């Protein structure tokens, strides 16, 4: 583990020996992937909240509808368990492009966000990204935590309150203007990179007039990049429709010189991992539905190798397949929380 600092390794090993984190032999639960990210390459996901705790219920969410819609901030998962899982995963020697604070919901709802971020930064030199819906960035302590990361990936899918409510279906306590103000303040306080995702939906927020309203807000937020996305995986609601490519190009032009289209993964394939396990595949697809190509890219394994495992998992009733936009996606019938990702 050449990318772990000596001191951080010592601390973790000491805690391992004292069994302070969790009983040995327990499977890794809070770290998944690396998953193929259209934005940051091979991303090792770190779950800070269980499925599916979020203060939004976006109509396009690839995790399905929000089952626990809440504003409550608390230690949903303890930092010790998260860090132990991350240490174990990094010990395998596979170096991802990014470690990404994310989760099966909104990670900033975990009240130990600050501790997790600062300890990961001490543990490894792999760049750290925070994937957030941005709703809580008006809180100074959350901005302070995010400022320790190398990259912050917030979202903005609307330029006005009514569209925000329609697309993101936030908790009633979340005010649109306050949310945007949080993004503006983050830019003022943070020297790192902010890549703002704008998720466009056909017939919902992709008219030029809607895009221009989003642009007005973006001009105040001043992110380093604006990344335009659209539906690529089965969404929470059937009416969350994909925007076609020419329309994405037009929206991209409207959103300015630092805008780019990220819909459609274009990363390099390197099928160089010789040993994968059923558990690797299940960990990946229990977070979100994945195509065969997604799994192959995430695990660096050949699709022919993966399909053998998938066939067995389907015959055993553990995995199901569904078709979306002409592509087949695989997902776990039940997650370890007992819920299907499409419940
Ligand atoms: S897309 Fe993100 S913010 Fe929206 S409901 Fe899903 S997890 Fe929450």
User: What is bound: which ligands?
Assistant: iron/sulfur cluster
Question: Distance between the terminal alpha carbons, to the nearest Å?
Answer: 39 Å
Q: Helix amount, in percent?
A: 25-40%
- Give the strand line-up of the largest sheet: 1-2-5-6-7-8-9-10
Order of helices and strands: HEEEEHEHEHEHHEHEHEHHHEE
Number of strands: 12
Contiguous low-pLDDT stretches (5 residues minimum) are 1-26, 265-270, 335-343
Helix tally? 11
Instruction: Estimate the global geometry from the Cα principal axes.
Output: globular
Given helix and strand content, the structural type is alpha/beta
Strand-residue proportion: 15-25%
Q: Write down the Rg.
A: 19 Å
Largest sheet: 8 strands, mixed
Whole-number average pLDDT? Answer: 85
Question: Any key phrases for this structure?
Answer:
17% strand, eight-stranded mixed beta sheet, 34% helix, 12 strands, 343 residues, disordered N terminus, alpha/beta
Care to describe what's here?
By secondary structure, the chain is α/β, with parallel strands linked by helices. The chain has eleven helices and twelve strands. The chain has helices at 6-17, 79-90, 113-123, 140-146, 161-168, 176-189, 208-221, 245-255, 278-285, 292-299, 303-315; strands at 31-37, 41-47, 53-54, 68-69, 98-102, 128-131, 151-153, 193-199, 225-229, 259-261, 319-324, 327-332. Strands 1-2-5-6-7-8-9-10 form an eight-stranded mixed beta sheet. Strands 3-4 form a two-stranded parallel ribbon. Strands 11-12 form a two-stranded antiparallel sheet. The site of iron/sulfur cluster has 10 residues, from loops. Residues 54, 56-58, 61, 63, 66, 105-106, 133 line the site of iron/sulfur cluster.
């Amino acid at each position: 583990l050449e990318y772990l600092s000596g001191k951080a390794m010592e601390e973790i090993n000491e805690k391992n020996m004292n069994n302070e984190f969790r009983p040995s032999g327990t499977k890794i639960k809070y770290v998944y992937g690396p998953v193929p990210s259209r934005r940051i390459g091979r991303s090792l996901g770190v779950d800070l909240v269980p499925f599916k705790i979020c203060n939004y219920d976006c109509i396009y969410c690839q995790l399905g509808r929000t089952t626990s819609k809440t504003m409550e901030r608390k230690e949903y998962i303890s930092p010790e368990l998260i860090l132990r899982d991350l240490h174990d995963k990094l010990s395998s020697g596979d170096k991802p492009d990014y470690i990404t604070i994310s989760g099966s919901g909104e990670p900033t709802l975990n009240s130990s966000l600050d501790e997790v971020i600062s300890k990961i930064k001490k543990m490894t030199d792999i760049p750290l990204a925070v994937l957030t819906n941005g709703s809580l960035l008006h809180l100074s302590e959350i901005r302070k935590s995010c400022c320790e990361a190398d990259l912050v990936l917030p979202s903005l899918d609307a330029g006005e309150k009514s569209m925000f409510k329609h697309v993101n279906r936030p908790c009633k306590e979340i005010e649109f203007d306050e949310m945007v103000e949080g993004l503006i303040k983050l830019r003022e306080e943070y020297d790192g990179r902010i890549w703002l995702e704008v998720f466009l939906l056909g017939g919902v927020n992709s008219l030029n007039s809607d895009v221009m309203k989003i642009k007005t807000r973006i001009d105040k937020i001043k992110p380093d990049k604006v990344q335009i996305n659209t539906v690529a995986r089965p969404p929470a609601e059937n009416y969350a429709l994909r925007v076609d490519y020419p329309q994405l190009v037009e929206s991209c032009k409207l959103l300015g010189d630092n805008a780019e289209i990220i819909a459609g993964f274009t990363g390099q394939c390197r099928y160089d991992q010789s040993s994968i396990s059923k558990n690797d595949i299940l960990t990946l697809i229990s977070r979100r539905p994945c195509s065969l190509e997604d799994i192959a890219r995430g695990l660096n394994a050949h699709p022919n190798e993966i399909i053998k495992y998938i066939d067995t998992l389907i015959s055993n009733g553990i995995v199901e397949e569904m078709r979306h936009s002409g592509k087949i996606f695989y997902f776990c019938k039940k997650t370890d929380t007992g819920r299907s990702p499409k419940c």
